[in-house]
Amino acid sequence: MTQACAHIIDDDEAIRDALQWLFKTRGVATRLWPSAEAFLEAWQADWPGCIVLDIRMDGMSGLECFEALLARGNRLPVIFVTGHGDVPMAVAALKKGAYHFIEKPFNDNDLVDLVEQAIAHDDENRQAAADRGTVEARLATLTAREREVMDLILEGKFNKVIADELAISMRTVEAHRSRVFDKMKVRSAVELAQMLTALR
Amino acid sequence: MTQACAHIIDDDEAIRDALQWLFKTRGVATRLWPSAEAFLEAWQADWPGCIVLDIRMDGMSGLECFEALLARGNRLPVIFVTGHGDVPMAVAALKKGAYHFIEKPFNDNDLVDLVEQAIAHDDENRQAAADRGTVEARLATLTAREREVMDLILEGKFNKVIADELAISMRTVEAHRSRVFDKMKVRSAVELAQMLTALR
DNA sequence: GTCGCTATTGTGGAATACCGCAAGATCGCC
DNA sequence: GGCGATCTTGCGGTATTCCACAATAGCGAC
User: Phi and psi of B72, rounded to 5°?
Assistant: First the structure.
């Protein structure tokens, strides 16, 4: 499941099959889900790709599914598909972060293009998230004391001042500082600042 | 014109007046424009507030006006209002960066709420832009050589290495470095890195 | 208890950064 | 030619960083 794919969630088997065939001819991998519930149950945060989500379905609606995904921190771009949408619904969905909102009947090529854009978009997100992930993983290896020292380093303070504020000796600060650089895999305070400021 | 206001662009005088009255009762300053052309002619990049833009108008349409504003780097949130919109139009507008898309007839309170949110949103944007502006203004005071040195500092290099790469003496690098810190109003390379990384 | 991790401190020295003062050279502008 | 901005360099000295080596102490896990 490391392969990016378009998750097609629709309770109409004929549509699922038609979309599967469509995407197959265009070289886009798909995975089919007969209901929002089924998808939510299987959903994993690290799945790459995008979601093509029908709004009107038996059981949980596409909008409810979207909300549930939001609550779980879903990052996959969601493309809504509906035959009975309206402007307020589309606006609300997009403002909540949906990737697109398209009405049936749609042009096949348009949908494929959208899905490809969404998958590419997800790729970028995923890359950025991975970068953040590695930095956070390194942060996680720091001890509490090391993090305290790091914070003060990031305020541009001298070891001397840090030693004062933490009421420890300068030598100790140096030791922590050295370990911080080591664990964060940077060679200077400047690199550290850039790495962490990039996280926002 | 330093006061944030809602720019109402509509070719129907009755609607303009009605909206002006509505916003006045809710304490939102407004400015009325009878056409997209009139607004575009007067438009200034530093106006704060938001835009309420009717789509169907004689002459230039709201959508065309929006495109023109995009091309000019407009930052004001745009709220589209229309009686004849459809889903694709709304989706396209939002994906291009419009703030909202609302259909007539609309609930007065909804529109006022939207406008207030948009103005608040613009305030935040403007604050962030101002921060970027001050940093960029400082950057602009740097000489070419100082910027070169700064770039190398931001790569975490020692003065010695920088001197080598630029084929100048270490003392010269120190002089530039000192002036860079001075002009950028920072006291350490760490602060500099944070200030510039925050710009993205 | 022993082992491993963490926090702590010290010594001593080499490498760098930082600062004030002074000054030569180039270049464009009036 | 004179003026101002910029780039350049050196001297001498202080402050800070960085590193290797060495060592003590607390604390939780097995």
Answer: -90, 5
Identify the CA nearest to B34 among candidates B54, B12, B14: B12
How far is residue B43's CA from residue B184's CA, in Å, rounded to a whole number? 32
pLDDT tens digits, residue range A160-200? Answer: 999 989 899 898 999 999 999 998 999 889 999 999 988 87
Q: Whose CA is closest to A119, among A196, A21, A8, A16?
A: A8
Q: Where do the domains of chain A lie, and which CATH numbers do they carry?
A: 5-129 (3.40.50.2300), 141-197 (1.10.10.10)
Count of Cβ atoms closer than 10 Å to residue A50 Cβ: 27
- How near does any CA of chain B get to the CA of A99, in Å? 9
Bases of chain C within 7 A of a CB of the protein: 6-11, 16-20, 22
- pLDDT tens, residue by residue, B48-91: 999 999 999 999 999 999 999 999 999 999 999 999 899 999 99
Assess whether A142 (CB) lies less than 7 A from strand C.
Answer: no
Which ranges in chain A belong to alpha helices (H)?
Answer: 13-25, 36-42, 62-71, 87-95, 108-140, 144-154, 159-166, 170-184, 189-197
Q: What is the DSSP letter of A59?
A: S
Question: Smallest CA–C1' separation from B148: which nucleotide?
Answer: D7
Which ipTM did the prediction report? 0.81
Q: Does B140 touch chain A (CB under 8 A)?
A: no
